[in-house]
Write a structure and sequence with these properties.
single chain, Rossmann fold, Alpha-Beta Plaits, 2 domains, six-stranded mixed sheet, 14 strands
Amino acid sequence: MASLIEVDGLSRYYGQYCAVNNISFTLDKGQVIGLLGPNGAGKTTTLQMLSGNLAPSSGLIKINDFNLLTSPLKAKRSLGYLPDTPSLYKDLSVYEFLYYCAQLQSITSQAINPIITKTLERCGLEAVSKRLIANLSKGFQQRVGIAQAILHNPEVIILDEPTSSLDPIQIKEIRTLIKELGEAHGIILSTHILTEVQETCTHVQIINKGHIILNESILDLNQTMRQGGVQVITRLPVDIAVLSVLPDITRIEQIAHNHLKIHYSMTGNPIHQITETIIAKGWGLEEITPIKKSMEDIFLALTQVES
């Protein structure tokens, strides 16, 4: 079965400046890709090209097997898009706006009311459906933006900062909604919140200076975060030079005379040698605990290396 999104060799230049540089990836049904990157990395430019709002300088974009450049109308029928700043008609009520969006999506008149009712419920907008959008809080306006993106039940949903300006309760509800939508759709979401990717997404991509520098499943990333270091506490001070020459050791941090953080290459696992050495030297091993890396650790390490 073809991927819902296929991107091949996608680039975008602004004059001599390359905002997105020859990226390629796919999105399949059931996947929720979290797109991470520092400011100016190329996230929003990428999403604007995927949504058809910005022409690429080169490269291929297919949505549901339709070429976005040569068959834009067919491709966009499978697409729902929430930009970082939703374009809302604020002089309309929530219901009126969604009714207008439903007509733009060619939803039949018989189906419009049931579909709007279901969408209002999914996005927690029932209580404000008759209020003018201009009179809603920024958080509720964000929900209206999400509602228009999913109204026509598209195969592909692109969300740029979907939980921006929401309170903690709303964030939890929208994350639950995204996970639910991800079971039957393909979703790409851009966010600055690293925990949001861990809690919501099935895959993560990190983009920096226009390049995709990481493209992994959350399961594989979680496995990586469980490896790579141990915290060691001993009764007596340790000779760091002795431990430093053990195979695969990359760095040792001395927190105190008898408290170390030992980092090692992912290709090896020298815990056994560390333990044996400490015992053999009589330093008195009191504690050895694996250090779990965080998503922030990985993000900073990758983006700083690329800087």
